[in-house]
């Protein structure tokens, strides 16, 4: 719908006449307005592992109790008869399928051929990747149920419940550290250090290497850094001589060697501390955002084509206790 009556374009009949007789200066780009960036999903995808077929396609042997018992002895070197104990079990995960159908009507091609400002089939192909990413990010941060969808952080990083076919309620070694703050607390550097140390204690001494929180909580944490900033000028120089000026604050907030990032999909007031040595996506080697190709819809009595973008994967945490969930943090309203 053309805009009339603003700028140099008149309204009324004259504007309608100009619209009918004048071509538009068309921007040959489709500017996407509806999706969000997701730093955590991008990082996990970059570190994804390959999986193949089979039932429980991702199976990780985990040790939950000791195989042997150490004891003291005397000059004779005698010891008690060892007892064979069951110390291992399997954490098992099935791959999940997400499908993004891509339609292409036959008449769309006939109308747009040699006349397309933005080819609609290309827009749909591009949108398929964006849609799949948005879907995965939503499930990653919100889904706790092992069903058709990937099990996200709420199910993987928890201190109770069945995960990977191992029950964290009864198996104490299969529990993440969970801080449910009440009353709520500010995300200060001292508090972040407490949560990092608590994660290391719960996991047997391993530090987390990645923290993620929502943007409002991240800004609240950044405010604890701001008052400590210092600006140093090289002798006989000034900030105006630097091409980038003075640097203020950071894109990642570092506490005790752990970087904290902001993700728009995170729930306000929550934070995850993750150990990426045990956290990854597993993606089927033959269905890593694979396109099926277009097939005719003539069998359905329609002139056109349909294809699909397929992804078979699962989000897997193989050592739950190396990760932490914190809820009840104060955040800034953005």
Number of DSSP E strands: 16
Given as residue ranges, the uncertain stretches (5+ residues, pLDDT < 50) are: none
Largest sheet: 6 strands, mixed
Cα Rg? 28 Å
Kindly report how far apart the N and C termini lie.
34 Å
SS-based structural class?
alpha+beta
Average pLDDT over all residues = 89
Oligomeric composition of the shown chains: single chain
Structure description:
By secondary structure, this protein is of the alpha+beta class. 23% of the residues lie in helices and 25% in strands. The chain is built from seven helices and 16 strands. The strands form four sheets. Strands 1, 4, 12, 13, 14 and 15 form a six-stranded mixed beta sheet that branches. A six-stranded mixed beta sheet has the order 7-16-11-8-10-9, covered by helices on one side. Strands 2-3 form a two-stranded antiparallel ribbon. β14 (295-296) and β15 form a beta hairpin. The longest helix has 23 residues, at 120-142. The two termini are 34 Å apart.
């Amino acid at each position: 719908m053309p805009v009339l009556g603003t700028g140099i374009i008149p309204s009324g009949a004259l504007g309608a006449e100009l619209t009918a007789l004048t071509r538009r200066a068309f921007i040959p780009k489709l500017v996407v307005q509806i999706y969000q960036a997701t730093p955590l999903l991008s990082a996990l995808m970059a570190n994804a592992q390959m999986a193949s077929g089979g039932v429980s396609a991702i199976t990780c042997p985990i040790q939950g109790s000791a195989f042997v018992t150490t004891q003291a002895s005397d000059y004779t070197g005698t010891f008690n008869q060892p007892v064979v104990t069951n110390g291992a079990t399997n954490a098992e995960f099935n791959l999940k399928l997400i499908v993004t159908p891509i339609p292409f009507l036959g008449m769309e091609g006939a109308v747009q051929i040699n006349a397309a400002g933005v080819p609609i089939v290309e827009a749909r192909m591009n949108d398929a990747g964006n849609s799949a990413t948005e879907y995965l990010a939503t499930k990653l941060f919100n889904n706790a149920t092992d069903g058709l969808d990937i099990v996200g952080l709420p199910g993987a990083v928890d201190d109770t419940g069945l995960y990977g076919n191992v029950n964290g309620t009864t198996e104490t070694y299969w529990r993440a550290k969970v801080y449910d703050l009440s009353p709520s607390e500010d995300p200060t550097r001292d508090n972040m250090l407490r949560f990092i140390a608590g994660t290391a204690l719960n996991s047997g001494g391993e530090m987390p290497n990645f923290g993620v929180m929502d943007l409002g909580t991240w800004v609240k944490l950044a405010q604890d850094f701001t008052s400590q900033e210092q600006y140093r000028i090289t002798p006989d120089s000034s900030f105006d001589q630097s091409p980038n000026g003075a640097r203020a604050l950071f894109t990642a907030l570092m506490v005790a060697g752990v970087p904290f990032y902001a993700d728009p999909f995170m729930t306000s007031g929550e934070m995850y501390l993750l150990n990426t040595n045990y956290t990854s996506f597993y993606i089927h080697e033959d269905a890593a955002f694979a396109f099926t190709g277009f097939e005719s819809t003539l069998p359905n009595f329609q002139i056109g084509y349909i294809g699909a973008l397929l992804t078979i994967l699962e989000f897997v945490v193989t050592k739950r206790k190396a990760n932490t969930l914190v809820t009840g943090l104060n955040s800034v309203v953005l």
